[in-house]
Design goal:
This protein is about 5% helix and about 25% strand. It is mainly beta and about 270 residues long. The strands form 2 sheets. A 5-stranded mixed β-sheet has the order 1-8-9-2-5. A 4-stranded antiparallel β-sheet has the order 4-3-6-7, with no helix packed on it. The two termini are about 25 Å apart.
């Protein structure tokens, strides 16, 4: 499978090799750093849905996930090192509201990792990434990209929208964690990347969201998780637990996930 919308170039698919991750990525870099599932085993019990709650509880399954190194996945070709620190990344993009809560833990100690930068990016409802000339997007757009620092409990929270899809890929959100850096003038600087991966969504929700506006305007064939080769390489460990805000799905959902990382790891 590819990680490329129908209007862009396909990303390479190959087994990771030592030295794959290039250093000094620029704003327009196109990187396909692969981290194999050999970096960890799948975390237990993260997928599915649950009754509405302010935050997911520290269940035994979540505690188990905190102690497991989350498998890494390809960065994909649409990363921009903007490092803009902001909670709300929608920039007016339409879609089902999504509150995303990412808990970052040290997989060796099971302890939460505060002050870790969580960097996310994803496409809009019709499969467009900001920052690329395609499908009406422009090089200077920054929608659906942002960085948040984890709090004392290791949680970073974003306000965004449920992503759409494009040919060859299941619905997903890209994620990196950075440690050792600082924030100045609203931008994260320095440190190093300690995890690169992707987050996924339960198909029961994907199907329901696809029937709503503006997602129903997406003409690309939707790829199911089970048919996405990248998802099959460890994606079940980062399948979001979703909580619907009310009886109307259009009012939004909250997604939670635990990332167990090695903060000392480098690309």
């Amino acid at each position: 499978m590819t990680d490329t919308p129908h209007h862009n170039t396909a990303e390479p698919q190959r087994a990771p090799e030592p030295g794959d991750a290039p250093a000094g990525a620029t704003r327009r870099s196109v990187i396909a750093t692969l981290g194999g599932a050999t970096l960890g085993v799948a975390a237990l019990g993260l997928a599915g849905t649950q009754p509405a709650a302010a935050a997911a509880p520290r269940t035994p399954a979540r505690l188990a996930a905190a102690c497991v190194l989350t498998p890494e996945q390809t960065e994909g070709p649409y990363y921009l090192d903007l490092e803009t620190v902001r909670k709300n990344i929608t920039e007016g993009k339409a879609g089902v509201p999504l509150t995303l809560r990412v808990t970052v833990t040290d997989s060796t100690t099971c302890a939460p990792l505060p002050n870790t930068a969580v960097d996310i990016w994803h496409c809009d409802a019709v499969g467009i990434y900001s920052g690329y000339v395609a499908g009406g997007s422009t090089p200077d757009t920054t929608f659906l990209r942002g960085v948040q620092l984890t709090d004392a409990a290791g949680v970073a929270e974003f306000t965004t929208v449920y992503p759409g899809w494009y040919v060859g890929r299941a619905l997903h959100i890209h994620v990196k964690t950075h440690v050792g850096g600082t924030v100045s003038n609203g931008t994260y600087h320095g440190g190093h990347v300690s995890h690169t991966g992707q987050l996924y969504f339960p198909e029961t929700y994907n199907t329901r969201v696809a029937a709503l506006s503006p997602y129903r305007n997406n003409t690309a064939t939707r790829t199911l998780n089970a048919r996405d080769g990248i998802y099959r390489n460890g994606g079940s460990s980062t399948l979001l637990t979703l909580t619907q805000a009310g009886s109307d799905l259009g009012k939004g959902v909250t997604g939670t996930v635990v990332l167990g990382i090695d903060p000392a790891a480098t690309p």
